[in-house]
């Protein structure tokens, strides 16, 4: 009879509690500001929404919702990057099945995630046996939250972390993939865990 509360990323409450408390305080002192604080609380929960996804049976899938910002060859490997803006779902998912070999946090700045200077931004690199995924914080994104650790085995499309507010996710594909295997182009909108970005 009642609508269910949508799933949200772990730790959402740490961001939502401040505007919610402020809404309670201002409900007595200044109701219009209380409404604004309540709207901010709803916005935080909406931003951290965690919808279910249905991964395809084959192919490398996008690790993030957003638009493809980079498709380039680096030596013998191909990199595909997806930029997430504030309206996209920010739950990140495993592009392919595999075992995590390491999770490394690198501190850094918070420049726009779509710029070349973002190479110096805060990031978390999740190494798999066959490929590498890097979650990069942006100007608004201030924290990267991985859910996985070395030794974890993930299925294609399984949740592995989230970034609070706008950001970027880069996939360095397995060595056997080349540019002819890419199934997306720069500017294309993709969905985490569902859109195939590369297939053989």
TrEMBL record:
InterPro entries, alphabetized: PS_Dcarbxylase (IPR003817), PSD-A (IPR033175)
One MF annotation (Gene Ontology) recorded for this entry: phosphatidylserine decarboxylase activity
Enzyme class: lyase
Keyword Transit peptide assigned: no
Residue stretches spanning the membrane: 20-47
Top-level taxon of origin: Archaea
Coiled coil listed as a keyword: no
The protein's Enzyme Commission number: 4.1.1.-
GO biological process, one term: phospholipid biosynthetic process
Pfam families: PS_Dcarbxylase (PF02666)
Keyword terms of this UniProt record: Cell membrane, Decarboxylase, Lipid biosynthesis, Lipid metabolism, Lyase, Membrane, Phospholipid biosynthesis, Phospholipid metabolism, Pyruvate, Transmembrane, Transmembrane helix, Zymogen
Name of the protein this chain belongs to: Probable archaetidylserine decarboxylase
Organism for this UniProt entry: Natronomonas pharaonis (strain ATCC 35678 / DSM 2160 / CIP 103997 / JCM 8858 / NBRC 14720 / NCIMB 2260 / Gabara)
């Amino acid at each position: 009879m009642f609508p269910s509360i949508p799933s949200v990323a772990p730790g959402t409450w740490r961001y939502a509690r401040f505007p919610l408390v402020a809404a309670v305080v201002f409900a007595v002192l200044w109701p219009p500001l209380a409404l604004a604080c309540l709207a901010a609380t709803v916005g935080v929960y909406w931003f951290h929404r965690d919808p279910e996804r249905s991964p395809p049976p084959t192919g490398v899938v996008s690790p993030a919702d957003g638009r493809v910002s980079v498709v380039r060859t680096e030596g013998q490997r191909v990199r595909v990057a997806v930029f997430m803006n504030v309206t996209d779902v920010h739950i990140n998912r495993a592009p392919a099945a595999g075992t995590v070999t390491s999770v490394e946090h690198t501190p850094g700045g918070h420049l726009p995630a779509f710029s070349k200077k973002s190479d110096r931004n805060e990031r978390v690199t999740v190494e798999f046996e066959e490929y590498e995924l890097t979650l990069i914080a942006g100007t608004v994104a201030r924290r990267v939250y991985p859910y996985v650790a070395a030794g974890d085995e993930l299925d294609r499309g399984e949740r592995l972390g989230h970034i609070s507010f706008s950001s970027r996710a880069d996939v360095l594909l397995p060595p056997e993939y080349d540019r002819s295997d890419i199934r997306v182009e720069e500017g294309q909108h993709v969905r985490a865990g569902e859109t195939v970005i590369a297939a053989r």
